[in-house]
Design brief:
This protein is α+β, with helices and mostly antiparallel strands and 206 residues long. It folds into two domains: 128 residues, Impact, N-terminal domain (Ribosomal Protein S5, domain 2, 2-Layer Sandwich); 64 residues, 2-Layer Sandwich (Alpha-Beta Plaits). Helix content is 30%, strand content 36%. The protein has a five-stranded antiparallel beta sheet, with helices on both faces. A four-stranded antiparallel beta sheet has the order 9-10-8-11, with helices on one face. The chain has a two-stranded antiparallel ribbon with strand order 1-7. Helix 2 packs parallel to helix 3. The longest helix is centred in the middle third of the chain and has 18 residues. The chain is elongated, with a radius of gyration of 21 Å. The model has no long low-confidence stretch (mean pLDDT 94).
């Protein structure tokens, strides 16, 4: 899906747009999401905000390689909502992105072509309203070290623009970190040179 294996493209912030056709209103809500759990929380919030909507259709693609995805038509005819929404996410080469389209039924059936056009158009409009950003693919690691070498660890993490996702600071410190794939080998060597540090790979990419 991605052209450069060291980077991926996603959206920077939440955006929304509305599309109307023959009385039905389609509100598209685009969000950056990093996990299925985060998406579920977003979907739950959207359903609370739009409890009277007739449909809550969505698509998402997650992961640096974009391998995790899901679509749902939420009661609309098969293939008329989720797939058109995902098509708009994919047309921009995005991952870690979800688009939820809520429909308020206007009393007139739109037919399969009308529904496909409505969900596609709403999703496209929302994605046009949020800036796209390029992020480095990160490799997840866990590191353990003595607190006395904390400065050396932080120096290495800063040098290679690593992210710290979790930290436990005691006599022995534990960090969950993300090392940019493009710097993985150099950072790996620098961290292993720190006395007593234990480095454990957790997954391929974030």
């Amino acid at each position: 899906m991605q052209l450069d294996p060291n980077y991926y493209q996603t959206i920077e912030q939440h955006a929304s747009a509305a599309f109307s056709d023959r009385g039905s209103k389609f509100i598209a809500l685009a969000y950056p999401v990093d996990s299925i759990e985060q998406f579920k929380a977003v979907l739950n919030d959207v359903k609370k905000e739009h409890p009277k909507a007739s449909h809550h259709c969505f698509a998402y693609r997650i992961g640096a390689e974009g391998m995790t995805y899901r679509v749902t038509d939420a009661g609309e005819p098969a293939g008329t909502a989720g797939r058109p929404i995902l098509g708009q996410i994919d047309s921009k080469g995005l991952t870690n992105t979800c688009v939820i389209v809520v429909r308020y039924f206007g009393g007139t059936l739109l037919g399969v072509p009308g529904l496909i056009n409505a969900y596609k158009s709403a999703a496209s409009m929302a994605l046009q309203l949020t800036p796209l950003i390029r992020k480095p693919v990160e490799i997840a690691y866990e590191i353990q070290f003595d607190y006395t070498v904390t400065n050396d660890v932080l120096k290495a993490l800063k040098r290679f623009s690593c992210n710290i996702f979790r930290q436990e600071m005691q006599l022995f410190c534990l960090y969950d970190i993300g090392i940019p794939k493009i710097h993985e080998n150099e950072c790996h060597r620098m961290l292993e040179d720190i006395q007593g540090l234990v480095l454990k790979k957790k997954s391929d990419s974030l």
